[in-house]
Write a structure and sequence with these properties.
Helix content is about 10%, strand content about 35%. The protein is mainly beta. The chain has 3 domains: about 200 residues, Neuraminidase; about 110 residues, Carboxypeptidase-like, regulatory domain (Immunoglobulin-like); about 120 residues, 60s Ribosomal Protein L30, Chain: A. The strands form 8 sheets. It has a 6-stranded mixed beta sheet with strand order 22-23-29-32-30-31. Strands 7, 8, 9, 10 and 11 form a 5-stranded antiparallel beta sheet that branches. Strand 12 and strand 13 form a beta hairpin. The chain starts with 6 loop residues before the first strand and ends with a strand. The relative contact order is 0.08.
Length: about 475
């Protein structure tokens, strides 16, 4: 998606498969100017494809005569908010939104004089709760320069725009505010004194949430637990609700994944490193218990992902990953399978972290899943989880020295793949150093496509999933 011009503010859809980006108005690599000789900005859309993002396509409401910039997509994906100096506004840059219905964009709508002023309104951010945050220098209650403001329900006759106050704003320029889904942590930019440069990025945390901000909407949820064989309702089933991250791993105050080393069949010195869900009893106190009818009620925050773990003595635990993306009540049916004696024995065997003798010189450990996205060297959330697991092994064997080897699939240019794998290995090493590992104990190697981990050599027709197996990380234990 990168070009030779300005690559400005962007936003992603909730599934991270669509990105809207501010870029210079250019065509075929040539910068274009409007009638006044000024370069303008446009909003472009790209979609995630395998293996690359699609070429950016400008949105239909852009113009060569004025700028559209700073996109922010609503949680349900139906509205895109942005800033523009198009004719007919109230001042310099105003805030607008545009509807998207069945993939088609409507016409931009100005947010009106309560939000917009005779000066500049820029950097809109629409939160999951529907509160709109933005930057302005056109209001009388400014603390100085550009300040950050918010308004609840910006599309429903807003009555009051609120300055975020001196806990966020300063007498300098404060801008580009974003907030996480919990409403308790976020980032913004500022050129205030004592920064590291011109515009610096600042983190803020508010354990109780920002006062006055609308809270995210919730959905009522009914969880029904039954015996999978008889259909009878199960009482006192423990229900744990864990919020899930985008990479498929769930996050909570409890670390509920254990590290496992699983030997590869026929390869005595090669192990897969896995993250395995702990016994539910080790995940802390249950959030809910099913009643005599096998039912429990709760609420889920809309547009969030959750991992629901249900367990009951004598039954196999079960997990369900759900996404709350509609306004209807959620009914989640959980059918638990009775546990056999063999399964009970295997569950008890999982208590050991590593089987005796697994960690020794000459052993190779491979990440269970792809931890690098195609054609990227940056660490994904999954990569961080596996590297954290490796750091845990290091605590058990502090004298360990390793060769950190990265690969790529066999598609594309061999020289590019070699460089990409070298960057992957170096980035993984950098993270381990950050975790406290001595850099002298890690050597990095980028193998590119020279040592494919499966049958997917050049010229063999493989599936995307098979190709992805080569985007794993390999740890070769050199010394203990």
């Amino acid at each position: 998606m990168e070009g030779g011009f300005n690559e400005g503010p962007l936003c992603f859809s909730r599934d991270n498969h669509t990105v809207f980006q501010t870029r210079n108005n250019n065509k075929d690599g040539v910068l274009k100017s409007n009638a006044a000789g000024k370069s303008t900005l446009k909003i472009y859309e790209s979609k995630y494809g395998k293996p690359l993002w699609t070429k950016p396509v400008e949105l239909p409401f852009n113009s060569d005569d004025y700028s559209c910039m700073h996109p922010s997509l609503s949680a349900d994906g139906s509205k895109l908010f942005f800033a523009s100096d198009m004719p007919g506004g109230y001042g310099g840059f105003d805030l607008y939104y545009v509807d998207r219905n069945n993939g088609a964009w409507g016409q931009p709508v100005n947010l009106g004089p309560v939000v917009n002023t005779a000066k500049q309104e820029i950097f809109p951010f629409i939160s999951p709760s529907g509160a709109l945050f933005f930057t302005s220098n056109g209001r009388s209650n400014t603390l100085g320069g550009l300040d950050i403001y918010y308004v609840n329900e910006p599309l429903n006759n807003p009555e009051e725009v609120v300055n975020l106050g001196d806990q966020i704003n300063s007498d300098a320029d404060d801008m580009a505010f974003i907030l996480d889904d919990s409403g308790k942590k976020g980032f913004f930019s500022s050129n205030r004194a004592r920064g590291a440069g011109k515009d610096d990025i600042y983190l803020f945390e508010s354990p109780r949430g920002l006062e006055g901000i609308a809270q995210p909407e919730t959905n009522e949820a009914l969880i029904v637990v039954k015996d999978a064989v008889t259909g009878a309702p199960l009482q006192q089933a423990a229900i744990r609700i864990l919020q899930a991250s985008d990479d498929g791993f769930a996050g909570s105050p409890n670390d509920f994944f254990s590290v496992r080393l699983v030997p590869q069949t026929g390869k005595p010195n090669v192990f897969n490193i896995q993250l395995v869900l702990k016994n539910p009893d080790d995940l802390g106190t249950a959030d809910l218990y099913s009643n005599a009818e096998g039912k429990a009620r709760t609420e889920f925050t809309r547009y969030q992902h959750y991992l629901v773990v249900v367990s009951l003595e004598g039954y196999q635990p079960k997990e369900n990953l759900i996404t709350v993306d509609h306004e209807r009540e959620i009914t989640l049916a959980i059918n638990l399978e009775p546990e056999t004696p063999l399964q009970t024995q295997n569950l008890a065997a999982k208590d050991s972290l590593f089987p005796a003798g697994d960690i020794r010189e000459g052993v190779t450990i491979i990440s269970e899943k792809q931890i690098f996205d195609d054609n990227k060297s940056t660490l994904s959330g999954a990569a961080v989880n596996y590297l954290n697991a490796l750091a845990e092994i290091w605590r058990t064997f502090p004298g360990m020295e390793i060769d950190l080897v990265a690969h790529t699939d066999t598609r594309g240019d061999a020289g590019f793949n070699r460089q990409l794998s070298e960057e992957r290995a170096k980035n993984a090493k950098t993270y381990l150093i950050f975790k406290g590992i001595d850099e002298n104990r890690i050597q990095t190697y980028g193998k590119g496509e020279s040592e494919p981990r499966n049958r997917c050599v050049e010229g063999v027709n493989c599936s995307d999933e098979e190709h992805a197996q080569n985007n794993r990380l390999e740890i070769r234990i050199r010394k203990l």
